[in-house]
Model the fold of this input.
Amino acid sequence: MSMPYRILGYIISLSFLCFTATPVAAQQYSDNRQQQQMQGTPKEKKPKGPQLKAPLYNGLYVSADLYGLGSKLLGSDFLSSEVGVGVNLKNRFMPTVELGYGKTNKWNENGIHYKSNAPYFRIGVDYNIRFKKLDYEDWLYFGVRYGYSSFKYTIGNAPIVDPKYGGKIDNPNLIDPIWGGQSIPYYENNINGSMSWYELVAGIRTKIYKNFFMGWTLRLRYKMSAKEAPNASPWYIPGFGKYASSANGMTYTLIYKFSLGAKKPTVVMPIEKKKSVTGKKIIVHRGGNTPFNSK
Amino acid sequence: MKKLTHFFIFGMLALVIIQLVSCAEETDCSMTARKMMNAGFYKKLNMAQKDTLDTLTVTALGTDSIIINKDAKVSGESLPLNWTADSTALIFHYTNTTKKDTIKIWHTNTPIFVSMECGYSMTQTISKVSYTKHVLDSINVAYKLANVDAIQNIRIYY
Done:
């Protein structure tokens, strides 16, 4: 069995396990709770562990995407490269700007030639769901982006040339299959187009060495508006992918963190409020603020 | 090391998801389906009432191509217009008479690029119609754009 099918098999097995195990676990949990209530034993709360308290500003992150370059090397029709800049706020939010450049120059097997290259930008914010964790520089996050690209594209319809005997035949794309006749010429040069879209982002980021990080993101892109010529839809949108109402994408980024005066976060021992037997509130200090030593 | 392992597992899973989603997306080339001129047959005395022709054969003028071959009990036909010329001439052959009518449709052709996978689609707009009156009475252009939605383009009255 090939590797992708094996991985797919694992995913299906895990999904099946999750679906079948969850009701059983829920039933057991429910039984335990009922038993506890019948016996009158109080529900014990799990004590909270130390948590992170981050200052507002935690550094500036500059990233470069390698996935766009890598996928082109592996045979993709599109080449894109981008850099991003993000500011870490409270170790929870990361307002981000991404600037990139996308390019395609593709011939299909029927002699249609499509060419386009243009810059694009995205702006948005990420939310780190691990913001309280002590390994605070590893992020698991979700985010949104607004993206825009203004571009020009050229579409040509070339005849097919016989490489051995010479001569050429009309492009088969525009030969009338009922009436026959010669192929219709089609050439549209430098058509103006633009598109805006939004993206839903899920990603992780981990520290690899000192201020160096790397990260993956998975992106679902949805078209908001587009400007196109009446007789030629764009095929490729820089920063978005193939022209459609939605597209998906990925990034693999190498990131450098510029601390630039950022303070280190502190570890906070949580305060618990309990009620005494007489009903008075008692505050139990499980610890105080302690300086956090970064790994 | 553990977190790096998690990192690469996440990456692999993301790649698998992307690949699966990409494979599941089939290219929809329905936009490139050939658009036809839809003709409806009506009675000249009662213009709202549809007429039914016993048998109809439609050929292309100047060629031996048969577009419609002996269609029986027809009250309308979908007819292709020529992509490479600005007019299409069709000959209507009726069974109950040796007479026939020639209908010439003038149209503009605009190729539209759809995508690299699907190629082009042709938009054809009818500008005028000329015809003989051996059997038919008159023709009215109801909708100019050839289409795949069976919207009637011309109404032919007998």
Notes: Residues 3-39 of chain A form the longest helix (37 residues). Chain A touches chain B through 42 residues (CB under 8 Å).
